[in-house]
Amino acid sequence: MLTPQEKTIEYLIQQFSGSGEVKMITYRPERVASPVAVDKIEALESQGLAGDHYKKNGGKRQVTLIQWEHIMAVSSYMNIDELSPLLLRRNIITKGINLLALKGKKFSVGAAVFEYTGECHPCSRMEENLGQGGYNAMRGHGGITCRVLSSGSIAIGDAIVPLV
After folding, report:
1. Distance CA 41, CA 44 (A)
2. Is residue 28 part of a domain?
């Protein structure tokens, strides 16, 4: 057992209570297109998700993830009983893991390996999709962006596991 002095911030940052899971998967075939929900998808190394308009070589925003728990928070801020995740335009909806805790980390989603590249800040579309105040409701709750380090299949129910 570690002493309190041995439990440094660096140590604590490596500790997770468990894995998360994939709750929903979407892609957008074109920039302004509505997201399409699927049961599974291929993540392509250095590109993004198969069929998604962001799929291209390089770049930091190949795939976006958002927590189901944050969708519930946004729903509460907007006084919306049931907020469709499709309105938020993110690729992977997760549950059970704090995505911001993945900062500076690599992690697996199903058979694919990702790298955290930043926060996914809201865009003006949130005001259109959610109504007045939608942009501000999403601030701090927009999820993360990442790049695909290793190709693999992702399906609903797959685990999201930090690679420490």
Report:
1. 10
2. yes
State which residues form the domain around 64: 20-163
Number of domains in the chain: 1
The encoded tokens of residue 63 equal 């795939």
Contacts made by residues 49-58, CB under 8 angstroms, sequence distance 24+ = 49/91, 51/27, 52/27, 52/28, 52/91, 53/28, 53/29, 54/28
> Structure tokens of 65?
């993830």
DSSP element (H, E) containing 10: helix 9-13
Token pair 């992690």 is found at: 107
Report mean pLDDT in 10-residue bins for the chain, 164 residues.
80 80 95 92 96 81 95 94 92 96 96 97 89 94 96 98 88
Query: Which pLDDT value is given to residue 36?
Result: 95
pLDDT at 101: 94
Residue 107 falls within a domain, yes or no? yes
Q: Is residue 4 part of a domain?
A: no
- For residue 38, the SS3 value is strand
To the question of pTM greater than 0.70 for the whole model, the response is: yes
